[in-house]
Amino acid sequence: MDLQVQLGRLALKNPVMVASGTFGYAREMAGMVELGRLGGIVPKTITRDPRAGNPPPRTVETTAGLLNSIGLDNDGLDAFLQNQFPFLASLDTAIIVSVAGKSYDDFVYLAERLGRVAGVAALELNVSCPNVSGGVDFGTDPSMCEKVVRGVRGVCDLPVLAKLTPNVTSVPAIAQAAADGGADAVALINTCLGMAVDWRRRRPRLGNVLGGLSGPAIKPIALRIVYQVAQAVDIPIVGIGGIASVDDCMEFLVAGASAIQVGTASFYRPSVTMEILDQLPEALRALGADSVSEVIGTLQHPAR
Amino acid sequence: MSCGCKPTYPDRTWHGAAEVIENTAVAEGTYRIRLVCPHLAAHAVPGQFVMLRLRSGDDPLLGRPLAMYEVVLNDAGEPWALDIVYLAIGKMTRCLAMVGSGEQIDVWGPLGNGFPAEPVDHLIMVGGGIGQTPFLALSQEALGRRAYGQADRRPGWAKRATLCYGARSERLLACVDDFCNAGVTVRLATDDGSTGHRGLVTDLIEPLVGESGGSCRIVSCGPEPMLKAVVEIARRLGVPCQASLETPMACGMGICFSCVTKIRDDAGGWDYRRTCIDGPVFDAEKIVFD
Predict the structure, then answer these.
(1) B164-185 as b/e, with b when 16 or more CB fall inside 10 Å?
(2) Would you say residue B235 lies in a domain?
């Protein structure tokens, strides 16, 4: 079975990755997951400078979902390169570094620095974190999205993925802008903006009031957006949102994703990615396919 | 050893489905569940925790962190099962209380750093609410009655052990006999005076330290206001102290960054640190209480 997939200039040995912010810096999971079997790892988003993140409570469970307002808690680029990256670079998998900036200059700075680091396979531009002020404009305004992708492409040779937010009227318009800017692929979706309320105390349950919803609750939204973007935009898609089984993975591939990222499911089924990889060849065979690429975007439209 | 400086990565962690052998009420709203998981039981040390998750679907979605209560040995004297004592207080733990013998639940662990096994004359354990649960195994080890984990911890590191245990009322006190049978001196406190000292469990600490004679160490687990009071008392009396935090967690393994708490850094400031892998046991002076 041929599991290889291609995301623009980025080749992956298989389509199963782990999503940023849901797998730490991978070192944490070395005892639970055979990291080298993954198609790729996207470590927790880094910023130019350290960020303490938002005050707790940072997560609250909702029905079949998880709301978070972590707030890009990270030690900054230099600490990442010194403390986290050497382990990541030692793994036999593609390391796709997720970066976020408050400004165009931040993104360009991060891309320029990371473009010179051996072992980085690609960049994922987090233009979609709902939990930080500033920066989200790059994921909601098509012209700004195009500009930041173009700026990053201009200073480094790495493949570029743009991770987009669902919290806009039309994701295809933003995805097209990312494509126009030179993105190799778009990653869909980041979390859906949400809220939880403790009515007895008349308080929001999250320390930062609003947060991003993830988990099985958002899978139908993610599938819809992957499908819509696949119809409209001509670059590969990485599907993200509530994927917790091989069936979920196959649904995204058929809907138009070339690869997937497992997120919240790693929190509650630590080795879920290994289960998906174990079962993927059989699922592909069930469709009569000898490769992943044969099933991507093969959704059959019902006759009207 | 210092607690809260370096992460304890879950490298020796087992995860899988464990059979429930029993799940019985031990006090009002409090249950003891016994899970067959020999590998986990062989590696767990006092103060570590496990994540439990129901296999019945996606609501509740996440696992819950619960302290190891005791390791159960099989007839050959080998670690075989794990006892967890928990309060049925939220959606998941209420569902957990309904799980019957013979059913399976998902478990991963052991997780976190655990309490240090450093020699001391008098180990004073302060537990509030359901915060007594990490201390049975700790007492057994401290008094040399049991060994836990691999060979790197030497049992018998304390001459005596006292548990100060507080709850709202007597009917909520769970497993007191287990501590008495383990050779622990138990001092109780209840808010309503139904048994023991009427008042706060923290009122019991200072007299104990005063009568100790030799070296003391305080370890504590419970609600944050209680921990804050214990830490202040320990600081005033000049007694070394560690606290195990009950911060809510989403993963227990260090990958979600939910369970952060403010921990002092070397530069005199603080940073949010993950309670699951940097703790849950922290040296008291490192914790910044809001």
Answers:
(1) bbbbeebebbbbbebbeebebe
(2) yes
Q: What ipTM, to 2 d.p.?
A: 0.95
- Among B111, B143, B175, which residue terminates a domain? B111
**Tell me: the pLDDT tens digits for B178-198?**
999 999 999 999 999 999 999
pLDDT at B1 exceeding the cut of 60: no
Interchain contact, B15 vs A65, CB within 8 Å: no
Does B56 contact A at CB distance below 8 Å?
Answer: no
Check which CATH number belongs to the domain holding A136 and give it: 3.20.20.70
Q: What is the DSSP string of B13-52?
A: -EEEEEEEEEEEEEETTEEEEEEE-HHHHHH--TT-EEEE
Q: What is the CATH number of the domain that holds B148?
A: 3.40.50.80
The H or E element containing residue B66 is strand B64-67
Q: Which of B13, B107, B108, B260 to mutate to test the interface with A (most CBs of A within 10 A)?
A: B260
Q: Do B173 and B40 have their domain in common?
A: no
Parent domain of B207? 120-286
Regarding whether B270 and B216 lie in a shared domain, the answer is yes
Q: Is A145 among the residues known to form the active site? A: no
Tell me the whole-structure pTM to 2 decimals. 0.96
Instruction: Please count the structural domains in chain A.
Output: 1
B159 and B17 housed in the same domain = no
A263, A266, A272, A277: CA torsion to nearest 10 = 50
Answer yes or no: do B108 and A32 touch at CB < 8 A: yes
Q: Is the pLDDT of residue A99 over 70?
A: yes
Question: Does residue B155 sit in the same domain as residue B224?
Answer: yes
Tell me: the pLDDT tens digits for A256-284? 999 999 999 999 999 999 999 999 999 99
Is residue B209 a part of any domain in this protein? Answer: yes
Assess B53–A contact: CB distance below 8 Å, yes or no. Answer: yes
Give me the sign of the Cα torsion angle A194, A241, A95, B257.
positive
Residue B208 dihedral angles phi and psi, to the nearest 5°: -65, -45
Contact B196, B103 (CB under 8 A): no
Please check whether residues B178 and B35 belong to one and the same domain. no
Contact, A41 vs A97, CB < 8 A?
A: no
Q: Which of A25, A47, A51, A58 would best serve as a mutation to test chain B binding (most B beta carbons within 10 A)?
A: A58
Find, among B37, B29, B35, B36, the residue nearest to B97 by Cα: B29
Task: List chain B residues with CB under 8 Å of A24.
Answer: 253-257
Residues B241 and B124 in one domain: yes
Per-position b or e across B250-284, b if 16+ CB within 10 A of its CB:
bbbbbbbbbbbbbbbeeeeeebbbbbbbbbbbbbb
CA of residue A64 relative to chain centroid, distance: 20
Asked if B255 lies within 8 A of A22 by C-beta distance, the reply is yes
Last residue of a domain, one of B50, B77, B111: B111
Exposure of B113 in the CB half-sphere (CA atoms within 13 A): 25
How confident is the model over B145-178, as pLDDT tens digits?
999 998 789 999 999 999 999 999 999 999 999 9
How far is the CA of A36 from the CAs of A16, A40, A91, A283, B100, in angstroms? 11, 9, 6, 22, 38
Q: Are residues B141 and B238 in the same domain?
A: yes
